[in-house]
Amino acid sequence: MKPVRKLKRKVIRFLFREQWSILLCDQNGTSLKEIIPPSDRIWADPFPVCHDGRVYLFLEEQVVGGKGILGCMEIHEDLTHGPVIPVLTLPYHLSWPNVFPVEKKGKTEWYMIPESNRAGSIECYRATRFPFEWVHDSTLMTGVRAADPELFHDGSTWFLLTSLQDGVHGMNDSLFVFHSPDFPSSDWKPLPGNPVITGRTRSRMAGKMYRDENGLLVRPAQYSKNDYGQRVVLNRVEVLSRNEYHEQSIKTICPERHLKAVCTHTWNTCGPYVFRDIKKRFFDPRWGRKKQGTEA
User: Fold this and answer.
1) Domain residue limits, the chain
2) Which residues contact 247 (CB under 8 A, 6 or more apart)?
3) Who contacts 79 (Cβ-Cβ below 8 Å, separation ≥6)?
């Protein structure tokens, strides 16, 4: 099936222009506003942060033919937005601007762990002037091709969840969990059952883990059985420990056909809002002759 899937993907990319945009939604994931980028780029992987009464949206921006960089825009109270300001640009493709706070000695430090699998490592950055200035802080793992790393602290243990390409499993069909007593750390112990989830229906992360209205832990995952990033599956985490992991799927979020969307692969909450992304396809037979290759 893989050769057929790859051939289909090549044909689609030759005949259709694809573009990712952002959806600002209510808590049910219903679209309130679409934030559409200029036609020569994509905006994907939205990671919102509510800070000091303001909402900052971190995202991947990729101009056609270029590599992905990480940027940030402010979302105003009337749901309008400011410009995308670049916050991290490196020689290789970046995506997944996973931003989170850590309390240290009564002070809040802001960290970001993007996807940097092209570097063969998982890198961690720290804000020197939040939200726009970042420096390299540490390397969490080396010698890995890792997708969409997520960090979760249960009060005593730090858990690192990511999808790995290890020769047996790929980045769209595996979920590996590691743990450490400290953060930042370069010493992550694997769970005995790794990979804890396999298959293309709910392995790869689709956003940050969060607590629902009942205080239960939820993990967003990507469904990519027939196409990368087809839809989002929300999973209730039933067990997360240094020895085991179990979850149960509870909801599926499909792309908005009335918006002509064909894929959706991110779900992140912030205050009363959920931020998602959607991909659209526009038929353009000339597209395959243009230099392109935008990915999310």
Assistant:
1) 2-289
2) 197, 219, 235, 236, 237, 238
3) 24, 32, 33
Domain boundaries 2-289, corresponding CATH code: 2.115.10.20
- Judge contact between 125 and 88, C-beta under 8 A: yes
pTM (2 d.p.): 0.93
Question: Are 221 and 148 a contacting pair, CB within 8 Å?
Answer: no
Question: How far apart, in whole angstroms, are the C-alpha atoms of residue 67 and residue 91?
Answer: 8
Q: Find the length of the chain.
A: 296
pLDDT tens digit at each of 296 positions of the chain: 566 666 666 666 667 789 999 999 999 999 999 999 999 999 999 999 999 999 999 999 999 889 999 999 999 999 999 999 999 999 999 999 999 999 988 899 999 999 999 999 999 999 999 999 999 999 999 999 999 999 999 999 999 999 999 989 999 999 999 999 999 999 999 999 999 999 999 999 999 999 999 999 999 999 999 999 999 999 999 999 999 999 999 999 999 999 999 999 999 999 999 999 999 998 776 655 454 446 77
Residue ranges in 79-157 assigned as alpha helix (H):
none
- Dihedral over alpha carbons 232, 127, 93, 75 (to 10 degrees): 50
